[in-house]
Design brief:
CATH architecture: 2-Layer Sandwich
CATH class: Alpha Beta
Structural class: alpha/beta
Strand order of the largest sheet: 3-2-1-4-5
Number of helices: 4
CATH superfamily: Ribonuclease H-like superfamily/Ribonuclease H
Order of helices and strands: EEEHEHHEH
Helix content: 25-40%
CATH topology: Nucleotidyltransferase, domain 5
Number of strands: 5
Largest sheet: 5 strands, mixed
């Protein structure tokens, strides 16, 4: 894997599946985000994770979504399926729940604006066990920061 998170040389991707996850140890606490982009055949295209500071789990979830969407756009995707184990975020983004937390509202707006850049998009909740790689990447982001201190 290359240092920038690319798994192979960039190529034009049309439909992708993006797994995202945010983690916070302490809620609020040290937080990280992770994302994994798969092509139509399920082959990894790009992945990454990083530390984002001290924040809540829900803020981390939205930041992971935003980063995953940006990476999918960079890969040239025009159709996207997002999978996340954050039921709250999935229901908010899909319009089933209102965003009541004022701190999440700007992140929600940013995520929705990014989603509108795709020709077609869908977001769905998946159980944690179906989101293991994104979870591992988010936690690795936290570990890198925590282990430096």
């Amino acid at each position: 894997m290359e240092a920038n998170g690319a798994i192979e040389p960039r190529r034009q991707v049309r439909r992708v599946v993006v797994h995202t996850d945010g983690a916070s140890r302490g809620n609020p606490g040290d937080a990280g985000i992770g994302w994994l982009i798969l092509d139509e055949s399920g082959k990894p295209v790009r992945e990454g994770g990083r530390y984002i500071g001290v924040t809540t789990n829900n803020v981390a979830e939205y930041n992971a979504l935003i980063e995953g969407l940006k990476m999918a756009l960079e890969e040239g995707a025009d159709e996207i399926l997002v999978r996340s184990d954050s039921e709250l975020m999935v229901r908010q983004v899909s319009g089933d729940y209102r965003v009541k937390n004022e701190g999440l509202l700007p992140l929600f707006v940013q995520a929705r604006r990014l989603l509108l850049r795709f020709k077609r998009w869908r977001i769905e909740y998946v159980p944690r066990e179906q989101n293991r790689r994104a979870d591992a990447l988010a936690n690795r982001g936290i570990d890198r920061k925590v282990n430096k201190d």
